[in-house]
Amino acid sequence: MNRISIQQIILFFVYLLYQVLILQNVVLFHTAFCFLYVLYLLLLPVETNPLLLMVIGFLLGFAVDMFYQSLGLHAFSCVLMMYLRNYWLNSLTPQGGYDATSVPSLSMNGLQWFIVYAMPLIFVHHATLFFMEAGGFGMFWFTLWKIFTSTLFTTVVILIAQFLFPGRRR
Q1: pLDDT digits 0-9 by tens, 47-103
Q2: Contacts of 134 (CB under 8 A, 6+ apart)
Q3: For residue 61, which of 52, 70, 78, 136 is within the disulfide window of CB 3.0 to 4.6 Å?
């Protein structure tokens, strides 16, 4: 599936606006940041062209960078996450394989599968983002703590969003 529907374009802007208008200032204990916009990237259809995935990741990350004034950190993190996404999905392929129009969501695959799918990708996104933001490994333990707390916080918010707004059921 290489086409982008009108609904996906609208969701792109909904996630972007929600992130930059509401969640930009949501921080727990000065270490846990919430980046709900990665949910849009995680919920793209399984059969989407990998190049298109990386372009969409770049566009969303760059748009977030424009509002956060972070000079491409989010864009790079999103492109890396989208690059690794297909490899990760291939390692998690169910016995019967994925449907052509399948979306890797909580409602389609269940809670355990979704956590195993989403958490490592969110961790990679956050690790890339925070280590680049820190400018290296000088504050390694504090940066690692930010990565773990932000990954947990983002995952919990994503799960809540998935439960509040379920898609198609399997």
Answers
A1: 888 899 999 999 999 999 999 988 899 999 999 999 999 889 888 876 666 666 678
A2: 143
A3: 78
3-state secondary structure of 139: coil
Dihedral pair phi/psi, residue 28, rounded to 5°: -100, 125
- Which residue in 60, 57, 22, 47 sits closest to 99, CA to CA? 47
Residue at 9: amino acid letter: I
pTM recorded for the entire structure: 0.89
Contacts of 51 (CB under 8 A, 6+ apart): none
Copy the structure tokens of residue 153.
């916080």
pLDDT band, residue 170 (cuts 50/70/90): very low
1-7 long-range contacts (CB < 8 A, ≥24 apart) are 1/45, 1/47, 1/48, 1/100, 1/101, 2/48, 2/49, 2/52, 4/52, 4/56
Percent of all residues in the chain with a pLDDT value above 90, rounded to a whole number: 48
How far apart CA 122 and CA 93 sit, in angstroms, is 19
Where do we find the tokens 């059921």?
Answer: 169
SS3 call for 33: strand
